[in-house]
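Input sequence (131 aa), recorded before submission:
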Amino acid sequence: MRSPPGTPSKGLWDDEDDGVEAEPGTTLVPVSIMDGSEAKLPVPRMTKGRRETEVALNELGYRMSWSQARTFNGRTLFLQRSLDAYRNKMRSTMISGGQEPATIAPHFETRPGKRKWLEWNKTARSAPGSP
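Predicted structure, token format:
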């Protein structure tokens, strides 16, 4: 069995100039609007933290598909759901093992918005003057 090729997190990617000069956030993409017309909107910029999370998730998915090539071949949705199940299982195992949730890597959290919302509600309820 061969080893998988390098991944972006290790700095092994093609960095050649493709001749296209475009800054992030300046690429315009046609988008359909509700009234049937089209508008051109800029692609949003990706923050550094979001990029790190995306690279980590892509690497996890890549490793899963590399080790189980026959299982995930042509089944992208199955790979995505399996990756989410793995992330949930690993996070719950770490928490039940006594690790502090704040110290767990952010790419293991599948619903960070829900956690932030619940924390916000908890602090809003405990604040003085709330019903």
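Checked by second reader. The two ends are 63 Å apart (CA to CA).
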